[in-house]
Specification:
By secondary structure, the chain is α+β, with helices and mostly antiparallel strands. 27% of the residues lie in helices and 27% in strands. The protein has a single domain, classed as Carbon-nitrogen hydrolase (Nitrilase/N-carbamoyl-D-aminoacid amidohydrolase, 4-Layer Sandwich). The strands form 4 sheets. Strands 1, 2, 3, 4, 5, 6 and 17 form a 7-stranded mixed beta sheet that branches. The chain has a 6-stranded mixed beta sheet with strand order 9-10-11-12-15-16, with helices on one face. α1 (14-30) runs parallel beside α3. It is globular, with a radius of gyration of 18 Å.
Length: 274
C-alpha cells in the first residue's frame, strides 16, 4: 500500500483548501500512490462562528468533498480526506472524514466520536461539543488492502476504539489530526506509537501544522508508525508531503509474535475496600 502523507496549514475558506488539495492529488498520482492521506479539517478550519456558519453545509453540497471525489476519479487514486465539517442529521455540524475510492465514490464516512472539551488552568475553556455533534459509530471499511479503521484526532486518547478496530481485522488505522502545540509536544508521538504497538497495526496520522488563518496554531509532525511501534516518517513542522510504502504483512507478523488481540479476558472491577 503506497501512500502520499500530506501535512498542511488549512485555511478558513473551502476554495483555498481545494487549491492545496488539487496539487496534492496530482502529486500522489505522479508518484503512483494508491492513496492520498490528509489531515483533520482539511476542508475547512474556521473558528469564527458566523463565518463558519455561512460555509458549512450538507454533505451533498460541500465543495471540498465534491472536489475530493472529482480528483480521486481524475487521478485514479483513493483519497482519505482527513475531515471537513458538514451539517449532521441533528442540524449541528459534525467533524466527518470520508474514504473515497479511485472512481470517486465515497466508500466510508466517519463522524468524530470523542469531542475535544478541555478546561485550562487560567480558567479558559475549549469546548468542541458546543459547536459540533458527536458521532456514535466506529467504522472499519473493507478495501483492496484489507480492513481499514477510521478515527479523528482526540479519538486517539480512547484506546478501546482502536482495540475494537484491530479485533475487527483492521491492519491500518487513520488518525487525521490538528493537535495543539502544547499537547502535541507532550503526547502526540507516544500516543501514536502506543496505539500501533497495542494493536499490531499501522497508524497513519496526517496532521495540520503552523499558524492558520483563523488564529490557531497546530503542532504538525505527521507520522506513520509501523506495527512494532517504529516511526516510518515524521514530517516535522513544515508544510510538505512524503511517499510511504506499507508492507501490510508486517501487521500479520507482529500479531503472530505477540498475539495480544487473542488474549483479552473478561474481568470484574472490584471497587470495595478490603
Amino acid at each position: 500500500m503506497k501512500l502520499l502523507l500530506a501535512q498542511t496549514t488549512t485555511s478558513n475558506t473551502h476554495q483555498k483548501n481545494i487549491t492545496a488539495l488539487t496539487a496534492l492529488a496530482e502529486e500522489a498520482a505522479k508518484q503512483q500512490c494508491n492513496m492520498l492521506c490528509l489531515p483533520e479539517v482539511s476542508g475547512l478550519m474556521n473558528q469564527d462562528v458566523e463565518s463558519a456558519q455561512h460555509q458549512i453545509c450538507e454533505e451533498e453540497n460541500d465543495p471540498y468533498l465534491a472536489a475530493c471525489q472529482t480528483l480521486a476519479k481524475q487521478c485514479s487514486i483513493w483519497i482519505h480526506n482527513g475531515s471537513t465539517p458538514v451539517l449532521g442529521a441533528s442540524g449541528l455540524p459534525v467533524n466527518r472524514t470520508h474514504l473515497i475510492n479511485d472512481r470517486g465514490v465515497i466508500v466510508a464516512r466517519y463522524d468524530k466520536i470523542h469531542l475535544f472539551d478541555i478546561y485550562l488552568p487560567d480558567g479558559k475553556e475549549r469546548l468542541e461539543s458546543k459547536r459540533y455533534g458527536a458521532g456514535t459509530e466506529g467504522v472499519v471499511v473493507k478495501t483492496p488492502w484489507g480492513m481499514l479503521g477510521l478515527s479523528i484526532c482526540y479519538d486517539l486518547r480512547f484506546p478501546q476504539l482502536y482495540r475494537d478496530y484491530a479485533q475487527a481485522g483492521a491492519r491500518v488505522i487513520f488518525v487525521p489530526s490538528a493537535f495543539t502545540r502544547n499537547t502535541g509536544r507532550a503526547h502526540w508521538e507516544v500516543l501514536l506509537r502506543a496505539r500501533a504497538i497495542e494493536n499490531g497495526c499501522f497508524i497513519v496520522a496526517a496532521a495540520q501544522t503552523g499558524e492558520h488563518d483563523d488564529g490557531r496554531r497546530t503542532f504538525g509532525h505527521s507520522m506513520v508508525v509501523n506495527p512494532w511501534g517504529e516511526i516510518l516518517s515524521d514530517l516535522g513542522d513544515e508544510v510538505q508531503s512524503v511517499v510511504v510504502q506499507l508492507n501490510l504483512e508486517e501487521s500479520d507478523r507482529v500479531r503472530s509474535q505477540i498475539p495480544s488481540l487473542l488474549h483479552s479476558r473478561d474481568y470484574k472491577l472490584d471497587m470495595t475496600s478490603k
